[in-house]
Amino acid sequence: RERDGRHYLADLGAGTGTRLNGELLRGESRWLNSGDSIEVGGEALRYVAGERTRLGAAAAPAAAAETIHLGSGALTIGRDPANEVVLDDPNVSRFHAEVRPVDGASEVRDLGSRNGTRVDGGFVGGSVVIRPGAEIGIGPFRLVFDGSRFVRRDDRGAMRLRGEEVSMQVRDKLILNRASIAVEPGEFVVVIGESGSGKTTLVKALAGVTDPTGGRVLVSGEPVQSRLTDIGYVPQDEIVHRGLTVVEGLRYAAWLRLPGDSTREDIDDAVDRVLEELDLAPHADTRIGSLSGGQRKRVGVGTELVNRPSLLFLDEPTTGLDPGLETRLMEIFRELAEPGRRSVTVVTHATKNLDLPDKVCVMGQGGELCFFGPPEEAKEFFGTASFDGIYSALEGRPAPQWRREFEAERGEALPTLEEPAPAPSAPRPRRPRPDVGRQSTLLARRYLTLMVRDRRNLAILLGQVPLIALGIALLFKSDVLRGSVDTNNAALLLFLVVTSMIWLGAIDAAREIIKERPLMERERAIGVRLSAYLGSKSIVLFGLVVVQAALLGAVTFGLRPLYESPPTYLALFAVLAVTGFVSVAMGLWISSLVSSEDQAASFIPLALIPQLLFGGAIVAVEEMSGAMQQLSKLVYSRWAFADIGAAIDLGDRIRQTTHSIPSRYTPDFFELPLGRGVAILAAFLLAFLALTYVTLEINRREG
Q1: pTM, to two decimals
Q2: What is the C-alpha separation between 274 and 240, in angstroms, rounded?
């Protein structure tokens, strides 16, 4: 259609849909520019201003196309050469999906793929019947169905990002106000602006990290949440483990991001490609902690490139770098953003290298989009001879005024259609969940590697145990645990052993989540399940606690022997180990609650003091007031104390010696059946893990 001397493309709601430059239009319209690519029903056209629109090969569409005919049998789709339709991309599983005829129609079924199968932008749960005009999305590929055949299109390096009036409001504060931005394939875009202008908020919304409260973000016409595997996002905080080598860090990133059926060869190929692309091959076997700041940033970028995303976002990647490293890093980003490869969007506050990007996005206070376009036009728009002058111009006038001026200058409101967009032809279940067992194993292996390599910290965690045990043992006489002596001191020794185990477990875990929260959040965004993350932490820390419990028990009860049979010592060890497990879970909960490692250290005493006060040793449970007795039931040291006393039959000893040395404790307190006591401690363990899970979910939703 034509309006005011210009042409625009209007989708009329046909079943096949219409694409403009790869973006799916459903009941929408867009202005046309000379050279735009149009797809209708799998056919490609090129719009040339002043000429007749051309069809077919002459249109030279950006995305390669191939026709696939649907036969009478199943059509298998995947990365493996044995499939009828082979899609060679790391985001595609070996046997990803299949299409088969069912009762005169066609049905697509996901085969348990890592990244899911999309139909019209929504993920398929199991199988779904497709109609003519439906579009199947697998990784970066699109299969357009017309009833008897598919037209396959490869969008790699040809994805377009479009943010339409994207807004973000947190409580009563608007931090991003109706920002509209379009990033073309292969473009290098830099987002600048004053502090608090919403730069990071905008990029997080565009990258699908956070959901905007208003507007929408589309990737080639599909909701951004459907195309997360095509997006890489590097936050400002470091998302690499300094204890790993470069190749190890990239390898773990590849295992977590690529399909579960990827072979070691697939992983190594992806890692080698990234090492070469980012000029990191000479440092492949170097510990990440030994690299320079710029090199560590490149490793962080590399973790996002292992699955070949077509859209890459980076938040303040040059912060803290010297001018030379900053320039080199920006040049690398310029090289990464090339037609046919990917677009790159970078948030920065620096203006030194603004001659490198294709476009500059300038944000003002209140989340106002003040300018979006080529860098040289930005200087002209703000009336300054240098890029530094843009900031002075922003300070000189209110951001809403700059926004209005920019919109007036851009002045291209899109024509609208009255026809409503058609309803989607497929249900939109949630994205498939990866295998939690596989992820837990990978994360636990990585965590164990890091723990073993941090020799100083590991030496402290293990070396303090015999010292604590020695101190406890030397407080008491050598026969303190013999049956004929004072049971009060025997109980006190056992309580000190229990509280020491509580201390060890809590201190082991209290920093383990908060110290790597940015990495955890990023890995969750790419599909790592929270249960796998917590499981990996728990498995490794439980192993550490088992060693600590063995050391604590061996030294304490070696110096102050029980003169009992081996099963008694095994029971003591079991109680100490389970108590340590509960303490690890409590420590993880503490780590999920705090916002810094210092806060975690401050929280530990607050968590331990109730264990001392209500454990039943300083003040016997029977001597507490009624309310405090009930409160003590919520403190797990009480149950651990009773359980460890039951392990050595302390209740019977109290009965036998109470006529000669009165006991502060009643025999009944230590006659808790060992199995029941362990079950109670296990309930505390599950409760703390559940609290940790819920807390982390709340933290994620609140941003």
Answers
A1: 0.83
A2: 15
Yes or no: say if 350 and 390 are a contact pair by the CB < 8 Å rule: no
DSSP state of 238: -
Q: Is residue 427 part of a domain?
A: no
The domain of 220 spans: 180-410
Percent of the chain with pLDDT over 70: 88
The CATH number linked to 262 is: 3.40.50.300
With tokens 């030294």, the residue in question is 555
DSSP 262-310: --HHHHHHHHHHHHHHTT-GGGTTSBGGGS-HHHHHHHHHHHHHTT--S
Looking at the 3D structure of the chain, how many domains does it have? 4
CA distance 572 to 566: 10
Within a domain: 422: no
Residue 658 has pLDDT above 90, yes or no: no
Pairing outcome for strands 188-193 and 343-347: parallel
Closest C-alpha among 305, 299, 300 to residue 284: 299
Domain harbouring 148, CATH code: 2.60.200.20
Q: Phi and psi dihedrals of 160, rounded to 5? A: -110, 135
Q: Say whether 254 sits in a helix, a strand or coil.
A: helix
If you average pLDDT over every residue of the chain, what do you get? 87
Beta-sheet strand order (sheet of 29-31): 2-3, 6-10, 29-31
What SS3 state is found at 308? coil
Cα distances from 189 to residues 89, 346, 348, 349, in angstroms, run 26, 6, 11, 13
CA dihedral 324, 327, 329, 332 (to 10 degrees): -130
- Regarding whether 566 and 447 lie in a shared domain, the answer is yes
- Distance (Å, whole) CA 682 – CA 571: 15
